[in-house]
Design brief:
Elements (H helix, E strand, L loop, with lengths): L1 H74 L25
Length: 100
């Protein structure tokens, strides 16, 4: 009878130990993943800000070029405007016919 009790206690200990060991391994993996993610966040944040700054720089340059082009176009034409059209000279037509 004593061996049956010992075997039952060993079986219960084995089941509990397996559950606790699996939970510990899962927690350790989760902690390691957390530490890895925490250490990569500053680098990712820095990269994101660099990308945002590059986009805003490009948008600013394009906006300045558009404003400059609009100001250049509004400043005046680059050719002389045509004056009033010349009036055609009208020559009087003879009212009488000669030789009749």
């Amino acid at each position: 009878m004593e061996q049956a009790v010992i075997a039952a206690l060993l079986l219960v200990g084995l089941v509990i130990g397996t559950g606790v060991g699996a939970s510990y391994a899962r927690a350790k993996r989760g902690w390691k993943d957390y530490q890895t993610a925490r250490n990569t966040v500053p680098g990712a944040r820095r990269t994101a800000w660099l990308a945002i700054r590059a986009v805003f720089t490009k948008i600013g340059v394009i906006a300045l070029l558009l404003v400059g082009a609009a100001a250049y176009a509004a400043a005046g034409p680059d050719h002389e405007r045509a004056g009033p059209a010349p009036t055609p000279t009208v020559t009087p037509t003879p009212t009488h016919r000669s030789g009749r």
